[in-house]
## 1
Amino acid sequence: MLRRTFCATCIGVEAITVTVEVDVSPGISFFLVGLPDSAVRESQQRIGTALHTVGAKLPGKKIVINMAPADLKKEGSSFDLAIAMGILAASDQYLFNYLEDYIIMGELALDGTIRPVNGALPVAVHAKKEGFRGCIFPLDSAKEASEIGGLEIYGVTHLDEVISILSGEVSVVPLIPQKETSESRSMFNIPDFKEIRGQESAKRGLEIAAAGAHHLILSGPPGSGKTFMARALAGILPKMTSAESVETSKIYSVAGKSCSNGGLMKERPFRSPHHSASLCAITGGGSASMPGEISLAHNGVLYLDEIAEFPRSVLEVLRQPMEEREISISRLKYKLTYPANFMLIASMNPCPCGFYGQPGDRCTCGAAQVARYRSKISGPLMDRIDLQIEVQPVPAERLTGEGGSESSREIRERVEAARVIQNNRYMGEYNTNAQIPAGDLKKYCKIGRNETQFLCAAISKLSLSARAYSRILKVARTIADLDGGDFISLSHLSEALLYRGFDRKNWNE
């Protein structure tokens, strides 16, 4: 007898339905076809042992299992549950009334318990789009998918629970999304801006970067607070919108790095890979075609501490994702596209010893060493960084003084207000000023005659590129939003130009 069940597999962050066709007929054999890998082929032993825990068995007949589409390679153990349900139905051991209404996924343990699987969230989104009644996942995996409305999401822990759901019993009920607490922000390990002494220019630059999702680099001697300030940035980022939360959570679901509370991610990711990270770790790919750091930082921050210590090959690969906000990974066996809409925040020393340009002749580096060190960050990459800020050591009187500074909460309120202005302006077409395409600059970044003359003179004097021109306008637009202004004024443009410090100094010369 032929029966069908449905499961799914993820290609990148998008899911595709896999139809499991099970036929049980007279004979003694077991065939599993449809390009299964070793983990899928080994499901026979897991399923046979697990079925005994519910009083069922693997029938001693001819069993043919086809996983369609047959030309798509099936990898992993998440198909166990769908195959087991198909076998039980095709062998008439159970009568299932809702077998084809659900996408079923889960890895079976030998005692019948169900282990978590990756990719539950994109599968649930796909199931809703395809018109399925719901999804049956392992409990730990189902929590992240429970917030997808209009879909029954069941979280199960044992094989007998799946049987009861498909049989129409009411012993298991769909999961209900957890209510978000009023203050769920994880602030325990994030420095507060009120702890930062001095560095007013850098703090202002970080506020602008957070408000418009602009790329930023801090350069200064050791101990000037670059890393501390960069990590404090996480405390002033606005919460993600619902759409951004789903987008980011899908990436983490595929990567097996779901949120600790089991639901959707609410806080923007802050990824800080070590400078020894490989090219594949940053971009994604590998044998399992997993998302890399730039995709895990989607809608959040990719922080590169001591960016000049990263291999140049790793840094250069960032150029295209910084412009296109996605990365296409082409390998021999697959071609995938992952989202990569991240804010690049970087920090570095001005030279190998760190004291170039500081008083007291402390720098021990020759001109060639300094040039070689800075050349790791190419001109095209630096040109893509909107805010370029030099950080100086904090004077002793500022370090020891009692003067307070604004808290992260106060700054975050201004950042969130600026984001609201941007959301209302773009109406979902894009989210932040940094995403404005070149064709819409004149529409959203209008400037008057005096401002145009000022900007033309600055571009000519500093020999700025067309890309730098567009990024100056976007930063000025963000500064105007922070001020609550409808128009970009001369003061907004002037401040935006101040943050192109490395352009003024011919960074690689």
Note: The chain has two domains: 2-167, 193-433.
## 2
Amino acid sequence: MEVIVSGKDICKYIPQRDPIVMIDKFYGIEGNTSTTGLTVKADCILCANGRLTDGGVIEHIAQSGAMYIGYEAISKGERVPLGFIGSINKMTINRLPKAGEELLTTIVMEAKVGDISLVSATVQSAGETIATGKMKVATKPQ
């Protein structure tokens, strides 16, 4: 897979800013699926004892969904909307990733009705599934 957006350029597509940016690579959208990446850093605000916390994994998933939505908005010539987690469903975190691990996250846009999107996510590290879940995201124009 080829990275199409990385580093500080990620912030053009998501409303989050440092120190809470939880993705560092975007591989693009194909159909209703997008892929993001994150190298977990020990000094991350959502790390504790050398591991990404549950909240960090959930925030990474939320920002991966935001990247999908933001990338689509920019592609249409629109501004990146603000996003809010409406609900989290069927979230399973199999283990907390360690600092230094590379996460690869797949987002599937399952449905979109108005300003509400339903996304499902799979977070992997070296082919191992770290977490899966679904999230409703509400967006609001900036």
Note: The chain has one domain: 5-140.
## 3
Amino acid sequence: MQAIKLDAKPRTPGKGPARAARREKEVPCILYGHTMESLPFQVVELDMRPLIYTDEFHRVEITVGGETYDCILKKVDYHPVSDRPIHADFQMLQAGEMITLTVPLQIVGLSLGQRNGGSPVARQNELSVTCLPKDIPDHFQIDVTDLDIGDSIHLSDLADDKYEFDLPLDATLFFVQAAREEEVEEVDELDEAGDVPEVGDEEEEDESDD
């Protein structure tokens, strides 16, 4: 996994300095870890874009005050109106120490079931996983090309000794269901058989009695 490198500036904690950073189009951030004191800093907002507007997970190398830290992005807060990032939390990585993170789940391929008229159902678009820093994946990927109507993919299909998931291994990630049009056709057939009255039938009978 290639790390995204960020050049940062130290910042003074507090609401005033944070607001000042945002006025300068910079994002107030905090870096924390088990073996270090929390480190407040700020990063140019544009430099954050490759990290937050992506469907891949990235390690991050942050350089601040002449020191470089290997870390991951844990959380981003966004402005409720502009949707711009207004704060970010980073967590320090320690070799040999397990870490829990959320990794995107990518679905590739057009399933056989979809080609046969079925509808795809994706239950997850990301997975929470615990692993060592050296095993952090960019993403998880499932190929659904061979799935027919009624077929599914479970978390067990991604199982690997390197990873611990917060979901049970029998959790369904993706399946192909029969198209809803089949249900509509069944109702239409009942209509034709007279089992389902047409809307307005009773009103027409009342009018004819007058």
Note: Residues 181-192 form the longest helix (12 residues).
## 4
Amino acid sequence: MTKKKLFIPLLTVLLAVLLSAAIAGAYFADAGSRENKVYVGDDVIEISEDFEPPVEQQTGSNLYKKQVTVVNHGTTPCFIRVYADFSDSGTRSRSSLSNDGTHFYKAERDLTDSSTYVSSLTVTAPDWEFVPDSDTTPLAGFFYYKIPLMPEQSTSSLFKYVSTQVNDPDEMIQFDINVYAESCQVTDLHGNTYLSYRPAWEDFLSRSGSRE
């Protein structure tokens, strides 16, 4: 079995600042990974991560813990959405995500048909929903937390385990998992409460006139 030691840095950055968390290799550094926050009105969210990385990559299957949740530190209930992707397309194609370590869904999703991807996700993360990349609205490509998140509460895990298959020593390269989180309030400008995440985000994005 071939082994190669590899140093990967780890960062966490919220909202407009991209969070980049190194997930493969040795000697992960977690310094400052939960210090950056962006305040927008009453919405204050933080990405929380729990890591148990392997000491080194090896050929074969590499399984490790990387639990991703979002905490609402604001004063109002809000809906959460998360974008998560691998920095290296080759690693993405050889990686899978899971919440229970048994049922995995592939990180490499079909950009035109995400039905299998979405179905597998709901097995291990039933509180989350993925809007396919083929969706014609600005909601496309994000994971959405279906439950309004109360102040000082945390979402359930989007994923908890990462499995990466290394078939050749040349595939032992540096890569990141980029995680980006946004929030919008559960009430509209008139104080009406949205019953589900989709109309809340559609209204918010139409008013903001932008998408990431």
Note: The longest strand covers residues 60-72.
